[in-house]
Amino acid sequence: ASAGQALADNLNASERTHFVLVPLMAQGHIIPMADMACLLAEHGAQVSFVTTPVNASRMAGFIEHAVATGLAIQFVKLHFPAVEFGLPDGCENTDLLQSRDLFKNFMEACAALREPLTAYLHQQRPSPSCIISDMSHWWTADISREFGIPRLTFNGFCGFASLLRYIIVRGSLLEHVEDENELINFPGFPTPLQLTKARCPGSISVYGLEQIRKNICEEEIKSTGVVMNTFQELEALYIESFEQITGKKVWTVGPMCLCNKDINTMVARGNKASIDEAQCLRWLDSMKPGSVTFVSFGSLACTAPQQLVELGLGLEASKKPFVWVIKAGDKFPQVEEWLAQGFEEQVKNRGLIIRGWAPQVLILWHKAIGGFMTHCGWNSTIEGICAGVPMITWPHFAEQFVNERLVVDVLKTGVEVGVKAVTQWGHEQKEVTVTRDAVETAVSKLMDEGEAAEEMRMRAKEFGVKARKALEQGGTSYNNINLLIQEMGNQANASG
Ligand code: UDP
């Protein structure tokens, strides 16, 4: 049993701080919240983790792990009213949405979980001490008021992007920008930064979402604080600025992915992996340390088939080993055909292609990996930071362009591949915007010898060490988790 388990056993169940975790049902949000559940439970708290049948079955490996290790996590499986809100039966995760226009229905179906969740929580002992909810679940604020407990928000962003989003939303900075090439300034942002509208968080317009956005913002202001999957040593300036501008306390408790300590939890993370882990590890073990580039664009990015082919040709031209995760096969048969027509055979000695869900942290943290080509989703980015490897940034949409700036300009642990166009979520990109030459150049910049690359590798390695320290006993995030549990427990006692 872990030290956390011993701590949990030492606490009388009725005295435990009881957190209710309500993730947005998207892989990039469920995964970090599952990690958060583990960390809180390991530090002695009790957790109720809200999910739905389809999402629970994807998390089966995680649930098994939680049960087997005796973590105090309860999985609250609520019926998801997909059909009632005009969605296909079983459409319980954003990656199952057929069109972006259905996002509104999806969010309304989520809001309908308020009553069943409230009823469930009324029966629980100890009663809830605190709700940690995805920021988009504004309706959880009603539940926190009903129970007289704090609501903390989580949205999966780092401090840098959270601050920028807040400045944009509060200042309505995007509202009157017509010119798509105009560079926008961000008053109050502590370091130089300019972006075009399409590269800003909040720039995606989704049909019918205005009222929901309004609710989210109103409840955000009333929330007690914010939980972030980051750590002080990485971006203290931006976390501090965020606290100052918002007047909210920030609990930095990351990198939360570090709670995945053994192979089984790494393989079961998010979804069942589509590759046999032993085969994957054998392949990685056969490669020289630090020689392989890991290429993966997360769970939602929709890269055009011809762009994928171009990327593959760039990897081939680089003559360097790579692991490439491709999710397009089921959507774009032409990519599969192209792979089968010779590409896979041609690169077989130095390229491993994974179709579908990859055990990302298992691969990233293997010693063979020397670089990470990423779409800059925050989870992937911080997982790369933990791996201590430099990155090639290839953002697609949302706050990924902002994370790219953090990695390239502030941390100086990555190079841009040079993305020109924004590939909006749910909108298929049509043309090739990143050439094979650009891919080859970026891989060389990252993986070759030479002073600049060496410096970048050193910096990345240092951040990797700091990341691990933050969650070790006495580290900043470790201490914050304990303080969070104490403070929320005290508040519950005071109000109860
Ligand atoms: N992930 C994974 N295997 C995959 C694709 C993604 O394990 O094949 C995980 C990845 O490690 C990360 C999450 O899914 O934890 C994706 O979150 P991120 O914020 O990087 O991107 P999003 O999918 O939200 O765009």
TrEMBL record:
Entry keyword annotation includes Repeat: no
Enzyme class: transferase
Keyword set, alphabetical order: Glycosyltransferase, Transferase
Listed GO MF terms: UDP-glucosyltransferase activity
Record Pfam families: UDPGT
Membrane-spanning segments: none
Enzyme Commission no: 2.4.1.-
Signal sequence extent: none
Superkingdom of origin organism: Eukaryota
Family the entry assigns: Belongs to the UDP-glycosyltransferase family.
Protein name, per record: Glycosyltransferase
Organism: Dichanthelium oligosanthes
